[in-house]
Amino acid sequence: MRQLLRVFGGYFRTTVAAQLQYRAVLVIWLLDLVLQPVIALGVWSAVARSRGETVGGFGPAEFAAYFLAVMVVDHLTFTWIMWEYDYRIRHGDFSTVLLRPIHPVVSDLADNVAYKLLTLVVLSPVVALLVWLFRPSVAFVPWAVAAFVPALVLAFALRFALEWTLAMAAFWTTRISAVNNLYWYVFALLAGFFAPLSLLPGPLRAIAEWLPFRWVMAFPVELLLGRLRPEEAAVGFAAQLAWIGIGVVALRAAYGAGVRRYAAVGG
User: Fold this and answer.
1) Can you give the pLDDT at residue 264?
2) Which pLDDT does position 231 carry in this prediction?
3) Are 244 and 161 in contact (CB under 8 A)?
4) Which residues of the chain have pLDDT under 50?
5) H helices within the chain, ranges in order?
6) With contact defined as beta carbons under 8 Å apart, do 136 and 52 qualify?
7) Distance (Å, rounded) from C-alpha 262 to C-alpha 40?
8) Alpha-carbon distance 36 to 220, whole Å?
9) How many CB atoms sit inside 10 A of residue 173's CB?
10) CA neighbor of 111 nearest in space, from 90, 85, 149, 72
11) pLDDT, position 267
């Protein structure tokens, strides 16, 4: 374990140094992450005002709190690995990865954590500015705020496992952008990215309860905003742990099968 941590630390320092060379790209990616929740906030706030200030219990100030929390949770949990594996495999770069005496998930995890720590320096004042502009309304509950931290860590672990598993589809198809796009839209709808899940039609809410996406985003967001009771929070943690277990098993199985299938020239 100590050796693994040393390797992770080495990857982390290398990634920080590499990403600091591409500061403009970091800012562009960050703008994309900020703009999507802000657009959703603008749309839903306009709908609330047109309907007498509330939609399903959300007014403009409640929508502001919800989508600003979505922005932070999305930033701290998102991954890009499913978009990269297509390139790695088609261009033979994965051959180099296989020569390393450590699982590639370690370097991908270090990349992800390093990016988020670097961009948090920029995201924090952006969130503060948006709070000043949109005046969100939220009544924080101390126990829920404390529970938000482990819920966020588990949400990150779950999303990382799910999307790393999805990335393995690149072993079976040469172009997985269509699969990735379909996944993202389903995720955004059923995770509460486009709208709070309570505003979805009943059948979609029922589907969201049985899939892992809700536990990646809507659960930590609702927890932070004090919208869950203690027993609902307990159910959420149990669901996160169960889905992480399923995700890790699926990841190991997909990676093993993919490596056995892999063949490339170049790299």
Assistant:
1) 65
2) 94
3) yes
4) 267
5) 2-19, 23-50, 60-77, 81-90, 94-99, 104-134, 142-167, 177-191, 202-210, 213-216, 218-224, 230-261
6) no
7) 41
8) 19
9) 12
10) 85
11) 47
